[in-house]
Every structure is written in structure tokens, then in C-alpha cells.
Amino acid sequence: MSASNQTLAYEVSPPPALPTFPLDQWYVAALGWELNDKPVGRTLLNKPVVLFRTADGQVAALEDRCCHRALPLSSGTLDGGGLRCGYHGLLFNAAGKCIEIPGQEKIPSKAKVPMYHVQERDQIVWIWFGSSAHPEPTCEPPAYDVHSSGKYLFDGDVYHYDAPYQLIHDNLMDLSHLGYVHLRTIGGNASIHMEAKMTVESEGDVVKVVRHMPNSTPPPTYSAAYPFKGTIDRWQEIEFHVSHLRIWTGAVDANTESLDDPERGGFHMRGFHGVTPETDTTSHYFWTMATNPETNHDEVKAKVIEQTALTFDEDKVVIEAQYQNMCRFGERPMIDIHVDVGANRARKIIESLRQANGA
Amino acid sequence: MSASNQTLAYEVSPPPALPTFPLDQWYVAALGWELNDKPVGRTLLNKPVVLFRTADGQVAALEDRCCHRALPLSSGTLDGGGLRCGYHGLLFNAAGKCIEIPGQEKIPSKAKVPMYHVQERDQIVWIWFGSSAHPEPTCEPPAYDVHSSGKYLFDGDVYHYDAPYQLIHDNLMDLSHLGYVHLRTIGGNASIHMEAKMTVESEGDVVKVVRHMPNSTPPPTYSAAYPFKGTIDRWQEIEFHVSHLRIWTGAVDANTESLDDPERGGFHMRGFHGVTPETDTTSHYFWTMATNPETNHDEVKAKVIEQTALTFDEDKVVIEAQYQNMCRFGERPMIDIHVDVGANRARKIIESLRQANGA
Amino acid sequence: MSASNQTLAYEVSPPPALPTFPLDQWYVAALGWELNDKPVGRTLLNKPVVLFRTADGQVAALEDRCCHRALPLSSGTLDGGGLRCGYHGLLFNAAGKCIEIPGQEKIPSKAKVPMYHVQERDQIVWIWFGSSAHPEPTCEPPAYDVHSSGKYLFDGDVYHYDAPYQLIHDNLMDLSHLGYVHLRTIGGNASIHMEAKMTVESEGDVVKVVRHMPNSTPPPTYSAAYPFKGTIDRWQEIEFHVSHLRIWTGAVDANTESLDDPERGGFHMRGFHGVTPETDTTSHYFWTMATNPETNHDEVKAKVIEQTALTFDEDKVVIEAQYQNMCRFGERPMIDIHVDVGANRARKIIESLRQANGA
């Protein structure tokens, strides 16, 4: 080992597993309301992208680099439906073609930047990262009816993670950590979480984990949001998709309704969790939380969003500390416990898609 | 590609072009008034240098490292015309010779630090970085009469850039960016900048770009500084030298004087722009701005300096964003447009001097 | 040299000397009062360690990584005499054995983390880093009677250094720097420090430097703490041990007592200086300062501690600047002067122990 390597060993030792990403997928690029009167620059799957909304309300995505002098187009301005560079004013349309060079009549045919396929659906902006075999999308982006049905109030945010995306999957696939990490909000009694009956099913690239916690004490967020009479029958239904998770949690008064009834009442929280790799070691986490207040709609919604944000702040602290520690220690065996079944199944799907990228 | 390389790829990918620097040149090391009762430490062309003023007012420059235990001499103190290390008190003269070791009679002949050739001229401190063929200066440092003629009021500052020096040249050689980057100060109408007639001449290592913008609207800084009656005839004369640029801009009331008359009146701004590489990827930018107020001298000067500083703040944001993006994307072809003629000629001169370093 | 190396050269050039550390030694891991109701995470000799106090008051140290999902155990909580991980609640005892996995009956035999040997003695927590030949301690940790004798009031703190440990040794072994670095506190007249008679003795792995400064002016800290009548006879006795230094300084009124009398009176400051490498290039500095106020005990002690902290702040600035400069310049010869005798002898001991590690 050379002197130089020794010096750097502590600071930049490689992480234990170097994820690449499944391609031929729609990933979340933005929440719809992020794109308004300014372009948004964001690195997605190692590609610097500028996202913007054109004059007719469509979303567009280009490589975030002016072809003239390499300035990020995301520091430019929306102008006449296109995107104008903030240095010398070159104007690009949604397809990446340069349509104006101020002070110059002829526009060289090489004056263009690559475009990406993006689509907005149910207020989520999806971007296609295809393999060389599938540069064009092979399907529609996922629907997310919760945003469109009118049955829920919702809001959300984008979090940046200094951790690779699969650690976020692990966290979301195993809600048993609520009893240790989220005591102040949605946690509640730790042993009830740990001893909850759990079923794990998978079909294709989807994994579903269901846990029921009958006769629980309502955790702080639940009590604040809903007039439960006493103990509650609580559920967690987690649906893993390659680019996002849908997590339906909630509760009814204990012994009043079946947790298998899809139309059951009570207090609901429906979370959308878009997990998009930024780089091999960092991630974007796009979340929305939808709820069904019985009364005081705005107030309850605001409370649920506030508590959800607090909860996700706590997760971020844990996951980033976990990743830093993985980097410090390098690749090392890990011990599995009972709660890891769902997360491990999701990892297998990702691994198999990585192997098959573009095949 | 190894796992470790993949991880680091995003953070530290090499910039697209790795400049080295023309040698056998006088570069700006400091503005004269920076050197008073304390030494100044500054890395110049990759060399850590300590600059100071001796008891008789001369400027001096040494390697910024005590030969005893490697402390930066720039954290020491001026003492009796020399520079005393702040750890164990060794005293060095302007030639780098140790002339006192407290508590020790004999001074070893090896107790010395390398010195650099520096000269102050017209309140600019110049330093010679010679090739092995020319360790001694082969000429006098440049004169800058604007500082000494008494015709102008001026002030200036030193900016640090996280970008290589040639990106600052590019920016200064092409003032067409004023219409997009500097709308709040010296910009004015973008299309007038872009469509201005431009002439580019070069002779030896000097490039001169002249642009005239007749019948323009005065930009904010101009209106604030001078009582123009209406539209103005505006000029920009840029003179590129290897280590600095001289930019003369200004305006007269439209159709009152010839812009070719070197003695023309109106409002003048004479900029001095010393661009000195700090490292391969970072730079020092030493600027002064001189103006000729008709009335309210101090107030107009203060206004012009304030607006100039704002303008250069804007440039710094753009240029550093540009460089970061160049690092993100790696080496890639760039498209030239009409405004790049002057900058490209300057780049050719630098390239040819780099090839010839010391020849 | 490749393009990439050139770019990085300035930022991460390797330090001139890459220390590894003598093994088979007790190093300071903590000051006793740091370990109370929370675990403390600390990297020591490149190993991330979590330190904690068990229910019965004993100190314990484990590898700072949960064997389940690699979270730092130092972000967990003390629980029932053990340490509980903050993610999924695994509970470890002081020997590193997992003794509870919430929600799971069987605990796999592999569920454990490595432990380190630690012992608390005289309010200092020592940790054994043994070679493969001596994983178990071969001796008791050092005693430090100053903390236990009841003759002194003391307090202390932990400082983090961005510099390798041997630069701190150098600094402490040569107190002649007091006259240049610590003028505001314990410095006093520079030439008296530099011209003080110094004796250097060594025996085994211990080096002792003694300096006497008769008839000195009391420095600010001394005057503030003790009612000296006029000039003072001042002493400095420095005892270097591989993992720590003991520095006894003080003064009596000039010409009143022999500085060779171990029971001499006057004003005393007894410093304990634990210097423990964190990594090859960073260090922990655990210090306590003990003094013997004649009157106003608490006030004088507080004053001495405050002044000591100020003094060590000044050292930290100098040593970190020195190390950054060593990194900037790379390996280069250094010139020795008269004051370096003690420090150089300490370096020889370290070097010889490094060569012999584990032999």
C-alpha cells in the first residue's frame, strides 16, 4: 500500500457495495408543483438534468449544459416556452434544439443539447432512463390515483440523502424501526412493532409487506389527527416498486372493522415514496403524504404533514449515519434478523434488474 | 474501472482541460495597499508565497515555509525589517536568509528560504515566475499609468475564484455577456450588446477587441454616475495581456463626439484586471476600477466601485458554475459563436506560450 | 503524470511523513467524566470505537458498528447495563455479545461485535491497542496520582487536531515556543525561554526535559493566580511517555527555594497531556491541568483552566497550520535548532517502537 493510499483510507474508503441502477424504468424526477417559473437543475442516475415547464404547461428535460460554454442551463431563465442560457443568451426548445443565438443569424446544426423523456402524471414528474436497447419508453409512467381521486388531502417534499438509494428502500420496507427511531411521532410501543405478524408476498417486480398490530396504543401523530376512543387496530401495507414505494398505514378503533376490508374507515395515511438515485452514493427522496381528515381538514392535514416531515428527518439522520459507518468499515458481512425479509426480497429484484440492464 | 474509481467519479472527475501557465512573465501578486503591517500569504502559480513590506517600504516575497519546522511564515510578524516565524522566532530578511535564531549563536548556512523577485509599480505588486532558462526577470514589470496620472479616482479588490484562470479571460474578452449577466448594473439592452460591431486585432502577445454601441440606453451604473442627456454612444476597448487585461469602457452623449478620439470626454471607466493562477483549478482576480467624476467626486467614485464589485460578484457566480459543470461533464466539444473571436485568440497566445515555456 | 493527478496535487498531496503508531500500549480513550448517561463514539488509532459506562459503573468499549445493519452503536442508548442500537433495538453487553433481538427468540451466535480492553484509573480511561502478538494487555495502565492525591484542584478537556500526533509531541517537548506563541498567557519574555539552561535525559521509553528560568518576570497567568512578590525562579519539567506527557511547571519567588527540591512550594501547574492518534493524520488531545491555589481556590482554579484552554487553543492553531503547510510542500528537509533535542529523542523512541510493533 502506498503512502498516499494510506492517508486517504479513512476519508474516502469505497462503500461496501457499489450500486448501479436498473435501467428501462420511469424514475421520479420532480413533484409537479416544483416546476413553475424557474428551471430546476437536478442530477438523476449520475446525469445532470435541467427540468422545466414549457409555455403550454408541458414538462421538459434537457442535459444541464449549454453547448456553447458549458454553463448549467438550470441557471438560465424560461423564455417564450424555451430555456435561455444565463451567459450569452442561447435559447433552447423542449427538444434541446438551439432556436436563437443572439446577434448571430445562422444557427449551427450542432447547436443542441440532449433531451430526456419526461411525463407528468397525477402530479408526479417521471423521467425515463433507458438502456441502449430501450432509449424510448416501453410503457406509460405509473399512475398514482391517491393524488387525483379527490378522496385525500396531501402535500409533500423532496429530501436529499447522502446515502445510496437501496438503504432508503431497506428503511421503508421494514417499519419495525418505528418503535426505536420514531417514538416522537408515529412510533408507539416498540415490542408491538417487533412482534407484529408480518406477511411478505411478491409478484414480478413488486413486493408487498403487510403487518397488523391489533389492540395497540395510538402513537402521537395518530392521536393528534383522529378521535380514537381507546386502543386501535393498526395496519401497515407496504408496496415496493423498483422506482418508488406506496405505503398505506392507518388504524380503526380496536375490534370495530376488519383490516382486510379495502374500504375500511378510520384514520388513513397514504405515503408515496419516490426513491431516485442521484449518484452511486447519494439519492433524492420525493415523498407525498395523503390523509382523510374527518373534521378540521386543513389543520389535520397540516399536522400530518408536519409530523411526517419530522419522521422522515429522523430517518435521514439514521440512514446517513449508517452509510457513513458502512464507508468507514468497508465491506463486511451483516447479520439478518426476522424483519429483513421484505427488504431482502426487494434487493434481489434490484440485483436481478441490474444484471439484466437493457437485455 | 474499479469500484473505488466509480465512487469518486462524480466528486473529483478531472476538469476538461488542465492548464499550466506561461512562465517568464510578471504576474500580479498583490495590490500595493494590501502590504502594510502584516505579511500576506498567497499561493501563486501553485507556489505558496509570503509577501511583505520591509522597513524601508520595499516589497519582498519568500517561500511561505519556515526552514525549521515548516510553519507558514505568513502567520509570523514583521520585525525589524524582516519576517519572524510565529513558532520559535527565527528571523528572515528580504532575501530569505535567516539572520537570527533566538537562543542560538551560530546560524547554519542552510537556514534560509527561497526568495521570489517582486516589484511594485504604479501600486501594483508584480512577481516574476521564470522558467529554468530565465529565473531572473528579463524585463521590467508593466506600467499602469491610470493609477499614477492623477486623472482618475480609483479603488479595487482581490477576488478568489474556484475556477481556472482562462475562464476569467474568456469572460473579460467577451463583454456581450453584459446583456444577460449584468442587467442590474452595467448591462443594458441585450440585443444592442449582441449586435454591436466588433473589431479584433492582435499584435505579439496582445489582443485588442473594440466594440461600439451607438445610440444605446444608459445602463443603471452609467445613469447613476453621469448626467447623460438621453441616449449614449458607448464603447468597450479590451486589451488582453498574458497576465492582465485593461478594459476601457464609457460613453458620451449620442452623436456628440467621435468614439475614435482618444481624448474624448464623457463618462469613463478604466478597469485593470490582473488574473493570476493560484493553482491549476483556482485563481486570484485583482481588479481596480478608475473613473473621472465631473462633480461629487467621492460619491460618484464610491458608487462606481460599489457597482463594479456587484458586477464582478455576478461574474464569479457564473464562472464558478461554469467550471463546476465542466468538471461534472468532463471534456466535451464546445460550439463557438460570433462573440468568441477575441477570447479564442487570447487562448491561442496562452497555448503557444505554454508550449514555449522557457524556450 | 496523468491529468487527474495534476488536478488533485494541491488538495490531497500526501503528508511528508506517514506515521503509524506504536502498538502494545495503553492509550487515552476518554476522560472519566465524559462517560455518563450516553455512549461516546470516537475513532482511536484508525478504529471506530464506542465507549460507555455499564450499570455497575465499569467502562466498556466495543467496535462502533451494529452487526445487523452497520449503524454506529454510539447513536444508540444505554439500556439495562448494555448498549441498544438506535435502529432496530439489538442490545449488546459490555463483552460485545448481542443479548436481545426484539421480536425474535433465537439470537444467532454470530450476532456480536468486537470488544476492546479498557480500564479507568485515576479518572483517565485507557484503551489497549495490542499487536497480534499481544492482543491482551501485558501491563496495568499508568497511574496518575495528581488526580487522586487530593493535593490539587484540576479540570480538563478533549481537543481534536487536524494534525498527526507527533506534531503535538514536538510542541509539548519544546516549551521554548511559549515566548512566541503564548505571550498572552504563560509566555513571558521570549529570550528568557530561549536562553534557559536545558537538560535532556532519557531512560527506556521515557524522555525528561528540565529547564530553569531564574529571575524571570511572571507571565500573565502566573501573576493572576499567585501573589508573587517580584521576579520568580521558574521551572519546566517535561516527562514524555509514548502515549502521554506529564508537564510540571511553576515558580517560586526568586532566590527563596531550590528548584531541585521536589517538595518546593510556590505556584504549581501539573499538566496531563494524553495524545492519542485518531487516524494517520488527525489526533485527540486529552488534557487536564491541576493547580494548588493558596486562597480563593475555585476562582484561581477556574482562572488557571481558562488560561490553559486559551494556551492550547493557540497551540492548535499553530500545529494545524504547520501540518497543512507540510502537506502543501510535501516531504522536505527541516533544519534543527538547539531546542529540538528533546523532541527528536521522543521521535526516535516512537520510530523504534513502530519498527518493533508486536515483536
Automatic annotation (TrEMBL), chains A, B, C:
Coiled-coil residues: none
Keywords: 2Fe-2S, Dioxygenase, Iron, Iron-sulfur, Metal-binding, Oxidoreductase
PROSITE patterns: RIESKE (PS51296)
SUPFAM superfamilies named in the record: Bet v1-like, ISP domain
Domain Rieske: 26-127
Highest taxon of the lineage: Bacteria
InterPro entries with a match to the protein in the record: Cholesterol_7-desaturase, Rieske_2Fe-2S, Rieske_2Fe-2S_sf, VanA_C_cat
UniProt-listed CDD domains: RHO_alpha_C_DMO-like (cd08878)
GO molecular function terms listed in the Swiss-Prot or TrEMBL record: 2 iron, 2 sulfur cluster binding; dioxygenase activity; metal ion binding
Protein name (Swiss-Prot/TrEMBL): Aromatic ring-hydroxylating dioxygenase subunit alpha
High-level lineage: Bacteria, Pseudomonadati, Pseudomonadota, Gammaproteobacteria, Pseudomonadales
